[in-house]
Write a structure and sequence with these properties.
mainly alpha, 2 domains, globular, 3-stranded mixed β-sheet
């Protein structure tokens, strides 16, 4: 029995090695996976999960946790009941089973979505260079985003296009994606599936506004958070559906979606988030300039940010640093060496986009 399991493990490890070698070539990943098999596979996943009114992926995650909570104590109990002379065989067999399970998980994750971490990215498709910018560029983009934030907040306050109802966010996000795809066909995404997270209480504890489930193709949004951030969160998660795995790229593609919504609430949601990223980047280069610009935020914007800060303070707990550390390690293991700071790198994409197209 152990010999058979070892053969299965060897085959899985060989497949994993071949997949890793394939992932080392971004051009091959782009051609044969991201623009190839990923498109129909992800569409099929969304057709299945989209038929459910709740988050199918969240249910599967919940069942996986229940299984582990049963399996681990049961395995310990079974080990203690095993005769001493058979315990070595029990450990070896269990270790092989675990290795097989992890190998299958690795293969399924990458073949359903994970290989997108290795594609050249949206900067390649648009011909922009997000890594090339100066402090003056940072100051300029902060000033531009400041104007966008204040103007869009005024429009929202005037009642123009106020659509913070979640069903409306879903509907307008779908239209925004279709509009963006008319200008940039590589952003085309069909059967968009956005769900309200079942595990919002856990997201609050970990600081997660949304997440993408690669096994079901669903975009989850944590609707417990202040409503003004929801449109951009939805657009960000749909960017993951579209095959942009890295967080800075999903932030940028989410921006391309949001500005095509032609709705002030979407404009405000995306520009306030981008402003915070850009202002944080500028603070690292010139704190005086960053503070000066931030002081010019409209009072209503300041109040919104205070609401967001208070929400996060209320949900702080001992588990949050651990969750964030684990997630940061996951990002570093998937082509994002800056971990959680990878989100901030969207600033370079926005600057590169502005330099090439003259607008944000």
């Amino acid at each position: 029995m152990i010999r058979k399991k070892l053969k299965i493990l060897a085959i899985l490890l060989l497949l994993g090695l071949l997949l890793h070698i394939f992932s080392r070539s971004p051009s091959l990943v782009e051609t044969y996976f991201s623009l190839g098999i990923y498109k129909p596979v992800s569409r099929c996943l969304r057709l299945i999960s989209g038929a459910f009114p709740f988050s199918l992926g969240d249910v599967l995650y919940g069942l996986a946790v229940v299984f582990l909570l049963w399996k681990i104590p049961f395995s310990i109990y079974k080990f203690r009941k095993t005769l001493p002379r058979d315990r070595k065989t029990f450990i070896v067999s269990g270790s092989i089973k675990l290795a097989v399970g992890l190998s299958v998980l690795y293969l399924v994750f990458n073949l359903l979505w994970g290989l997108n971490y290795n594609r050249p990215g949206v900067q390649h498709e648009l011909g922009i260079k997000p890594e090339l910018y100066s402090k003056d560029d940072l100051i300029q983009i902060n000033e531009l985003l400041l104007q966008k934030v204040n103007h869009s907040r005024e429009q929202v306050e005037a009642g123009t296009g106020l659509i913070y109802n979640f069903d409306s966010v879903i509907r307008i996000t779908r239209k925004a994606v279709n509009r963006a795809a008319l200008q940039m066909p590589f952003l085309s995404t069909s059967h968009i599936t956005i769900k309200r997270s079942i595990w919002q209480w856990l997201g609050n504890s970990g600081g997660f506004t949304g997440y993408y489930n690669p096994f079901t193709g669903e975009a989850q949004v944590n609707t417990d958070y202040p409503a003004f951030i929801l449109p951009y969160v939805a657009c960000h998660e749909v960017a993951h559906q579209a095959g942009y795995a890295k967080e800075m790229e999903a932030n940028f593609v989410g921006y391309l979606f949001a500005v095509n919504a032609e709705n002030p609430a979407f404009d405000y949601s995306v520009y306030i988030d981008l402003f915070l990223y850009a202002n944080r980047n500028l603070y690292g280069a010139d704190s005086t300039q960053a503070i000066r610009i931030r002081k010019n935020l409209d009072t209503s914007v300041v109040n919104d940010l205070e609401e967001l800060r208070n929400f996060m303070v209320r949900h702080q707990n001992f588990a949050e640093p651990v969750i964030r550390w684990i997630y940061s390690a996951y990002l570093r293991g998937n082509q994002q060496p800056d971990g959680l700071l990878s989100y901030d790198k969207v600033t370079g994409f926005i600057i590169g986009y502005y330099k090439k197209f003259g607008r944000i």
